[in-house]
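Customer ticket, subject: "Can you confirm the structure for N-acetylmuramoyl-L-alanine amidase?"

Message body: Hello, I'm evaluating your service for our small team and ran a test protein. I'd like someone to confirm that this is what the system normally returns, since I don't have a reference to compare against.
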Amino acid sequence: MMEIRKNLVAASKYGTKCPYTMNPEYITVHNTYNDAPAENEIAYMIRNNNEISFHIAVDDKEAIQGLPLERNAWACGDGNGAGNRKSISIEICYSLSGGERYYKAEDNAAVVVAQLMKQYNIPISKVRTHRSWNGKYCPHRMLAEGRWDNFIERVQQAYNGGGHSDEPTIAPPSITETGVAYIEGNRVNLRSGAGSGYGVVRQLNKGEAYQVWGQKNGWLNLGGEQWVYNDPSYIRFEKEGQISPSPVAGKRVESKVNGLNFRNRPSWSSADVVGTVDAGYGFTIDEKVMVDGSPQYKVHNSKGQIFYLTASEAYVYVK
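Agent reply: Thanks for trying us out. I re-ran your input and got the following:
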């Protein structure tokens, strides 16, 4: 549950910002295309006199509401169509530069969307992109990084009562060479740039594993402005398509969380989810595979049925 703080537009501006009452039937997701926090987004929207408006802005720390949810917003560019007249519009902040704070804002937005679905009995099939209404390339970062299906899956998981997503949410920079970095030391510095002169974002510890989206001058990019030096004394980097033969075949993998998805083929699409597994339950591992740059375990159950499960150590462990 995420609190939605209210800073509502003055009723005297309803004629400009939200002239029509509505019973919400859809939820539309947008990216702000700037780096302002939610508080600033809402303050600017309710202060100006433009016929541009939205209901909620979400950043890495909070969600703020600027319009009554049962009045329309001018956000979807479809005139008096259902996007503007029957949809709650949510802006996700920090999408211009991206990075860790944007991905956190995206996670928060998934929770907010799930709450609104419950509040107004809106099915997940009616959670849509701005692009779906008028063709505008929005939410631009989510679309560019090909993660809309992942976002919808996070919404569904939040709706079902879980706070976990089994797909990595960090996204690739423009450089190449992907794989997985296994942390084999403690207090390993994660920096904001590819060099020791950049600030320390946080420290990584033994047993953690991260998707690598690129490499630059010996530094591995872990998504956005997050870099770690590729020192084999404390980093084991396995490039995509070149994962070494895994010693885990035949071992048991178990979930650390409730409601972890498993699929009937190697993919991250919600369409391929065929079930969930709760904490302490799992499967027998056949092999470890890379799927769209992220690791999964090919597994089987006691009946010999084959499934695919995330290999992220944040969500599973091998016995």
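A couple of notes from the result: Residues 163-175 have pLDDT under 50 and may be disordered. The longest helix spans residues 100-120. Feel free to reply with more questions.
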